[in-house]
Design a protein that fits this description.
The chain is α/β, with parallel strands linked by helices. The chain has 3 domains: 64 residues, Arc Repressor Mutant, subunit A (Orthogonal Bundle), CATH 1.10.10.10; 235 residues, Type I PLP-dependent aspartate aminotransferase-like (Major domain) (Aspartate Aminotransferase, domain 2, 3-Layer(aba) Sandwich), CATH 3.40.640; 104 residues, Aspartate Aminotransferase, domain 1 (Alpha-Beta Complex), CATH 3.90.1150. Helices cover 39% and strands 14% of the residues. The strands form 4 sheets. The protein has an 8-stranded mixed sheet with strand order 5-12-11-10-9-6-7-8, with helices on both faces. A 4-stranded antiparallel sheet has the order 13-14-17-16, with helices on one face. It has a 3-stranded antiparallel sheet with strand order 1-3-2. A hairpin with a 2-residue loop joins strand 7 and strand 8. Helix 2 packs across helix 3, helix 5 packs parallel to helix 12 and helix 13 packs parallel to helix 15. The termini are far apart.
């Protein structure tokens, strides 16, 4: 008769304590295969606990296959393994990830001005959704995304990006990274994919994670190098033509037509990433490449994470009709990855004109911050050796610095003094920028007061 110490004061039920004791005794070899266990009545008397408790423990052990019962004979240990017990490996505890230290002045390229977000409006719309939709919020949604949201996106694209599509061509997903994975499956992994170099390195990493080795295509002053693209034999190109990241190039219409003709002549596809096209400060917004496409070769990609808030993981893609049909037939088994609650709320936000008003408001705010950067440079000695590039559109600019310091020295010196900047080399596949030392400043997450303070420091440390 075995004895185990059961604690009636423990939060763990008695039957579970007994079950774990017997399970461990079997696993470590103390109870041998085919060894008979005490009857429920005898063990109940021995341990001074109820028969029901013994019965529950035995029943769990039988269910998991540790013991079995013989009618009229009792309970026996199952022969679960003829080999010697193996000691479980000891795992080291994972070290917690220490967040990167926040600096006083951060010019990040992946932030937004959350202080200007219309929280009261958004909260009111959320209450409306809860009141109006009720149980619909708990129902399984359309794999493509909520129809009313896709309809609002289609209306917006026609008005502001000159893109004429139906809601059926739009797929909503939780972040551009998720949608890129879907595109890779739609087009097939046997194709040759190309990305811009320099560029947004996460796209290449997603491709590599899917077993695809992308071709890295350099850029000219007007965008992608066509000779290099043709020589690469690629038949899928990811591109940011309305505002290249990070060089800030706006691809002119002549080059856009060249890219489209390449796609038509080689039966290739273009993934147009239009990540911050809403923020252009001079003239009208540049029409999307997709709006020029007459051959159904452009997949348009955009996100609300850039223009509303990074935590709003709602992105969307516009598929050519043939790919939209393929998605409907072959990929409808995917559940939509964005909650219905957020989709309904964003749909109302757009339908009532709040999104348009918010973008107009933020365009003014970001223009003020851009002006603060340029004025800070022009009003001090930095103007003698700093050249600003890419200031007409988007949420970041380039500073080309000619003061004898290397790119690394510029970034490191700024960090030592509480300023976060990003070197251009980080966005090259080779990890090296061979041009003049250049740093990238995102200004969507830093206000004008701190911009001016930061540049006073830069003037002193970059002399």
């Amino acid at each position: 008769m075995f004895t185990c110490n059961l604690d009636p004061k423990s939060k763990v039920p008695l039957y579970q304590q007994l079950y774990e004791y017997i399970q461990n005794s079997i696993n470590n070899g103390e109870l041998k295969a085919e060894e008979k266990l005490p009857s429920k009545r005898k063990l109940s008397q021995h341990l001074k606990i109820s028969v029901i408790t013994i019965e529950n423990a035995y029943e769990q052990l039988i269910t998991e296959g540790y013991i079995y019962s013989k009618p009229q004979k009792g309970f026996y240990v199952t022969d679960i393994d003829n080999t010697s017990p193996i000691k479980a490996p000891v795992h080291n505890e994972f070290q917690p990830v220490i967040p990167e230290k926040t600096l006083p002045y951060e010019f990040r390229t992946n932030s937004a001005d959350i202080n200007s977000f219309p929280f009261s409006t958004w909260a009111a719309l959320m209450r409306e959704v809860l009141r109006d939709q009720d149980k619909k919020l708990l129902e399984k949604g359309n794999p493509k995304g909520l129809y009313t949201l896709r309809r609002e996106i289609a209306i917006y694209l026609k008005a502001y990006r000159n893109i004429s599509v139906s809601a059926d061509q739009i797929i909503v997903g939780a972040g551009s990274e998720y949608l890129i994975n879907i595109i890779l499956q739609l087009l097939g992994k046997n194709r040759i994919y190309a990305v811009e170099n320099p560029g947004y390195h996460k796209i290449a990493k997603i491709m590599e994670a899917n077993g695809i080795e992308p071709k890295y295509i350099p850029l000219n002053d007007d965008g992608i190098n066509m000779n290099e693209l043709i020589n690469s034999k690629a038949n899928v190109l990811h591109i940011t033509p309305s505002h290249h990241f990070p060089l800030g190039i706006v691809t002119p219409v002549k080059k856009r037509n060249e890219i489209l003709n390449w796609a038509y002549n080689t039966d290739s596809y273009i993934i147009e990433d239009d990540y911050d096209s809403e923020f252009r400060y001079t003239g009208r917004p540049v029409p999307a490449l997709q709006s020029l496409d007459k051959g159904s070769k452009v997949i348009y990609l955009n996100t609300f994470a850039k223009n509303i808030a990074p935590s709003l993981r709602i992105s969307y893609m516009v598929l050519p009709e043939n790919l939209a049909e393929k998605y409907q037939k072959e990929f409808s088994f995917y559940s939509n990855t964005v909650s219905s609650f957020e989709q309904y709320t964003l749909s109302k936000f757009m339908a009532k004109g709040n999104f348009e008003r918010y973008i107009n408001k933020m365009r003014l705010i970001y223009k003020q911050r851009l002006d603060a950067i340029i004025n800070s440079i022009n009003n001090c000695s930095l103007k003698d050796f700093v050249t600003v590039k890419g200031e007409k559109t988007g949420l970041h600019i380039l500073l080309e610095v000619n003061n004898g310091m290397t790119e690394k020295e510029l970034v490191d010196k700024a960090r030592e003094n509480g300023i976060l900047l990003t070197g251009m080399s980080q966005f090259f596949h080779e990890g090296v920028h061979k041009g003049k030392p250049t740093v990238i400043l995102g200004y969507s997450g830093i206000d004008t007061v701190n911009i001016e303070k930061a540049f006073k420091i830069l003037e002193q440390i970059w002399k």
